[in-house]
Amino acid sequence: MREFTDLCPAPPHWDLDWSTVREAFGWVRDLAGVEQDPVHHAEGDVEVHTRMACEALAELPAWRARPESERVLLFTAVLLHDVAKPVCTRRDEEGRVTAHGHSRRGDLMARRILWEVGAPIDRREHVASLVRHHQLPFWALERPDPRKTAFRVSLTARNDDLALLATADILGRRCEDTAEVLENIDLYTEYCAEQRCLDGPRDFPSDHARFWFFRKPDRDPDYAAHDDTRLTVTVMSGLPGVGKDHWIGEHRPDLPVVSLDALRAELGIAATADQRPVAAAAAERAREHLRAGRSFVWNATHVSRDLRDRSVGLAADYRARVEIMALEAPPRVLRDRMARRSAPVPTAAMRRLVHRWEAPDPTEAHRVVHDVTA
């Protein structure tokens, strides 16, 4: 993340050189001219707001007191927090400017941007999580039970980082409710401290307790759930070309494998055709192993949380212990591997998968392992 370190305001003057930031990143230049709701953003377009938010961050004593590595991480998150607004901004039927979904879309875009510059996985996912949840402190306590989201942030980033990002966000605006929102951020910070999830991951009695807390409503996070698992399902996750088959052969050689690629070949279904019959066949093969109490590997791309959850949910229904093995490789390595394949994944299909890529996090399984295969 050297690009961001070099641009991050630093002592003794804490200056932000915005012209250099614009020159460095095309996605920052894309923010120029993107409209915003004038009620909450009277300062102007998205680029103006992003610059003001970065300047506000640089003025915060709490941010200045952080070690350099943490300051850079937060600066990166503020710089990226509205990166998806150019693709999400619309006018509704009443002519109001909206940007619904920009936080979730921003998570995906931030991950892709940081992956392309070679950011370490833990720092990349920390920033992506902050971008995804950057509005949470504004309204979290209005929800009946905000624990799940606050706990998820603590496991993927830090809630005190999220509060600093939200503070910079609101101070980088011209709106009438700034004082009220700042109060909400303070209340969210107090809530996270009470819930033991402010400046570190929320602790659980076991990984089984954590797994079921995020799968069942109204679950007590301190309940030491009895571990009644009877087999282990290894769910592979990664873009085509990351080396899933090689990893399985090296690390799970004796386990049966439910492979979507193998099923496509068996059923004679092309990768570009309707994949529902392949998914149905994979689920049925998985059920055979689950009914028998037999551990196995589920080998598919599983790049989105929704797709992983279908596989994880089925495994959980049969009292399986679930581990997700998330493999990845740098863009250049993937391109080289694809070029050597006899039947490479089409470029357009690969691009769609990259744009949907959500890295697994600890809320999804008993165990999540990230590894780079380059």
Computed over alpha carbons, the radius of gyration is 22 Å
Quaternary status: single chain
Uncertain residue segments: none
Largest beta sheet: strand ordering: 4-5-3-6-7
Give the strand content. Answer: 5-15%
Separation, N- and C-terminal Cα atoms:
18 Å
Described by strand count, sense and barrel closure, the largest sheet is: 5 strands, parallel
What name does CATH use for the topology of the largest domain? Hypothetical protein af1432
Question: What is the number of E strands?
Answer: 7
Tally of domains: 2
Using the alpha-carbon principal axes, give the shape.
globular
Query: In CATH, what is the class of the largest domain?
Result: Mainly Alpha
Summarize this structure briefly.
The protein is an alpha/beta fold and 374 residues long. The chain has helices at residues 2-7, 18-24, 26-29, 46-59, 61-64, 68-80, 85-88, 102-116, 121-132, 136-139, 147-156, 159-171, 178-194, 207-213, 244-251, 260-267, 276-292, 305-317, 331-340, 347-355, and strands at 90-91, 97-98, 231-237, 257-259, 296-299, 320-328, 367-372. It has 2 domains: 2-194, Hypothetical protein af1432 (Orthogonal Bundle), CATH 1.10.3210; 231-372, Rossmann fold.
